[in-house]
Each structure stands twice: as C-alpha cells, then as structure tokens.
Design goal:
The N and C termini lie far apart (about 65 Å). Helix content is about 50%, strand content about 0%. By secondary structure, it is an all-alpha fold. Helix 1 crosses helix 2 (about 35-60), helix 2 (about 35-60) packs antiparallel against helix 3 (about 65-90) and helix 3 (about 65-90) packs antiparallel against helix 4 (about 95-120). It has a two-stranded antiparallel ribbon. The protein is elongated and about 80 Å long.
C-alpha cells in the first residue's frame, strides 16, 4: 500500500483468462480480476472516507450533543476501518485481519445509521436557559429517572416518586 505491485492502476486490470488461451469479455474483469476489484475497493474507500470527513465536520456544528457524539463515534470507527484496511493489505489479507475488517465494516454501518437517526430525529431539548420546553404534545406527568409518574395516574403519594401533576 498505497501502490499495487508498484502501480497505481493495475496494468492487466481488464484481462481475465478464459482457460483456453483467450480472454473473457471486459465486464468479467469487474468481478473476476483481483487487481481491478482491489482498485475499485480502494477508490470507493477513499471516496467514502472523504464523504465521512465532510459529514463529521458538518455534524460538529449541531447544537445537539447526542448528534455530535454519534458522528464522533462514527468518525472514530471510520478511522479504524481505514487503518484496518491498510493493515489487511500489508499483511496480505491474513484471514484474522480480513475478518476483523469485515466485522468493523458492519459495526461502522450500524454507527452510520445511528448517527443519521440522531441527526434526523434529535432528542427534544432546550438550547437557551430559562425557557420552558414546549414539546409537540402537552406533558401529563413529570418523568423521574427510573419511573414514569404517568404509571401512578397522578397519585401524589406514590412511594417511588411522590409525583406532582404538571398539567
């Protein structure tokens, strides 16, 4: 890494032998030529890394800390994926390293979905101090850590929270 046999683009990228002295059609090379497949994998990885950096930098401007944290997790996993991909190439794709690269790819995909969900559906919070939150629906009962006071139906003497109604 970063070259493939001393070349940026493999010289025989579009050649796939047919077993009888000839070659298969060019479209076979996109699936059966290891050099071309590796080149496409690297280029798509570079492109996705650049996109991930842009998404991470844009997420830093979010006022929502959960969104920023989710994108920070995603960015860390993406850096790990790039490093593990490079290490996979340097170790000539030892199976333990290659499987780790694939497992981290699944984990990274889950973190991308998590970050996107946090960006699209942020948790409701007040950004300014001293402003009472106005949720999309009026709250009926206060919520305390372990127990939602709605379960006690407004009983002020509830043993877990001694809730007071908000309405």
């Amino acid at each position: 890494w970063p070259s493939m046999n001393g070349e940026f683009f493999p010289s025989e990228a579009f050649y796939v032998p047919d077993g009888q002295g000839g070659s298969l059609p060019v479209w076979h090379a996109f699936f059966e030529n290891p050099g071309l497949v590796q080149f496409m994998h690297r280029m798509s990885g570079y492109l996705l890394f650049a996109f991930g950096v842009v998404a991470y930098l844009k997420s830093r401007k979010s006022p929502n800390p959960e969104t920023r944290d989710a994108f920070t997790l995603m960015f860390g996993a993406m850096l790990g994926q790039v490093a593990l991909g490079i290490f996979t190439v340097l170790t000539v794709a030892r199976w333990e390293v290659a499987i780790s690269h694939q497992i981290l790819a699944v984990f990274l995909w889950a973190l991308i979905i998590y970050a996107r969900f946090n960006a699209a559906y942020p948790k409701f919070r007040v950004v300014r101090r001293g402003v009472r939150p106005t949720p999309p629906y009026p709250p009926r009962f206060r919520t305390h850590g372990k127990h939602s006071c709605g379960a006690c139906h407004g009983n002020r003497a509830h043993p877990l929270c001694r809730a007071s109604r908000v309405d």
